[in-house]
Amino acid sequence: MTADRHGIPCWYELSTTNVDAAQAFYASVIGWKWSAAGMEGFDYRIASSGGDLIAGAAAGAPDAPGPGWTIYFAVANADETANAMAADGCTVLVPPTDIPNTGRFSLLRDPDGARFGILSAEPMESGEGSQAFAMDNIGHGNWNELMAGNAESALAFYGRHLGWTLSQALEMGPGMTYRIFACHGQNIGGMTDLMPGMPGPGGPFWLPYFGANGIDAAIRRVKKAGGTVLHGPHEVPGGAFIAVARDPQGAYFALVGPKKVAKR
Fold first, then answer.
1. For residue 257, which of 116, 143, 166, 212 is within the disulfide window of CB 3.0 to 4.6 Å?
2. Neighbours of 217 (CB within 10 A)
3. pLDDT value of residue 126
4. How far apart, in whole angstroms, are the C-alpha atoms of residue 255 and residue 233?
């Protein structure tokens, strides 16, 4: 993993109670194509879009939290980053561990309690990094949002360890500031203080946004496949529309794109 990828979102992982049902749901809603990872003794599924690997899904361990998405961020060295984060108030849930033919990962909770992952990946044969996050691509991760215990201190924490910087602060209402953050000059997400009544599992958490060609149509697919739309469609700065949803097993995610299907 080269230094110019450090801090960039690189993988999305779903912990679920029913892998087959989750696979069918996201195939219907987002259009992902799924395949088995081929890990001996471990049923791990890989989702792809347009030939790019986007996400993984597996049954949660008995001591894992309920169904949910984890966002992984690329790091130059998983051991060094995990140790530095632990010394800065993080809880290490899974210590740095090798993934055969992939790299080294760790799962953590930030000082406010939001779960996330880091991954130091081996170079791909193409020489390119992960394409899981691509803001303009349908079916890819388009945005990464943190509902934080304290967004100001959270941005400072991630800034120290992942190199993020404040790009823009938007006042969304009394006592609510939405902080857009950048990595290597690219806006990659936003964060705000977790407020009462916000949809989510309770407590600070990361919410992945996946690209959809037409939010209205995507909302219909969510409902038809047994999911629940919690918020939206809602227009955001820049003209895109978003919707926050929960899959049938209880994992929260969001969709972003134009309101109507755009001709491509």
1. 212
2. 14
3. 39
4. 9
Contact 57, 22 (CB under 8 A): yes
Distance of CA 13 to the CA centre of its chain: 8
What whole-number distance in Å separates Cα of residue 251 and Cα of residue 16?
Answer: 7
Query: What pLDDT, in 10s, does the model give residues 51-66?
Result: 999 999 999 866 677 8
Q: Which two tokens stand for residue 249?
A: 């097993």
Residues 68-106: b if buried by 16+ CB within 10 A, e if exposed: bbbbbbbbebbeebbbebeeeebeebeebeeeeeebbbb
Note the pLDDT tens digit of each residue in 216-226. Answer: 999 999 999 99
| pLDDT of amino acid 2 | 53
48 φ, ψ to 5°?
-130, 155
**Rounded distance, CA 29 to CA 224, Å?**
9
Residue 35 — φ and ψ, nearest 5°? -150, 160
User: Can you tell me the distance from the alpha carbon of 34 to that of 37, in angstroms, rounded to the nearest whole number?
Assistant: 9
3-state secondary structure 166-213: EEEEEEEECCEEEEEEEECCEEEEEEEECCCCCCCCCCCEEEEEEECC
The gap from C-alpha 163 to its chain's centroid, in whole angstroms, comes to 18
What are the backbone dihedrals phi and psi of residue 105, each rounded to the nearest 5 degrees, phi first? -130, 165
User: Helix crossing, 78-87 with 151-162: angle to 10°?
Assistant: 140
Q: Are 140 and 211 in contact (CB under 8 A)?
A: yes
